[in-house]
Amino acid sequence: MRTDRPGGTSHIEQAIELAGCRIPYRLRRSSRRRTIALLIDDRGLQVAAPLRASQGAIDALLREHATWVIRKFGDWQRKRPTPRRWIAGEQIMLRGSALTLETCAGIAQARQDGDRLLVNAALATAAMEAAVQRWLKDQALAHFTLRCQTYSSQLGLPAPAVRLSNARTRWGSCHAAGRIRMNWRLIHLPEAWIDYVAAHEVAHLRQMNHSPAFWQTVAALVPDHRERRAALRRDAHRYLLP
Ligand SMILES: [Zn+2]
User: Whole-model pTM above 0.85?
Assistant: First the structure.
């Protein structure tokens, strides 16, 4: 997990013009930094700088790396999903397939009908988002529990208690007491990738480490785990809600 200590850091929204392109960035100053660093994360360009770094030094570094910044910023903009408006016709990803959001009068709870996801037409935007998220989390818990049960029984282990997590930086975790947490957003992704995460966490019930014996256990459950893990890392963002 990423743990940023509060107190020693501050953020400011800034922008610089490079080769005629206006590039917005977040400037993050920290008492712990000694050098200026540029990085592109899921929110765009970030500049990490020591507390006392001058704006001139930051601009100079951005200009020096202008080609990299413009290319990476462009990649990020293309990959970035368009903000969701929560109206009929929008696509909601469930286990790698798109459902079309449809509004419907008088239904109490969101429900799936074939490749449509029906929600109450009377809901305002925020309530509609909450209803869809609640529905997705219900789907997630049911599906993940089933997959973890399947894998734990293949290993001859008791079924673990499965809970949902909301972590930004990890897909799953496993506690020695036999509890597994899986990120509810996995429910958007193809089943093969969900299965990889379930198998990985279930394998930790036997091996609480990432030793060769652990990976052998994962491979017994999901033989092509390497490919699935690589695909998950590379392409998960394409399935996630903004
Ligand atoms: Zn692990």
Answer: no
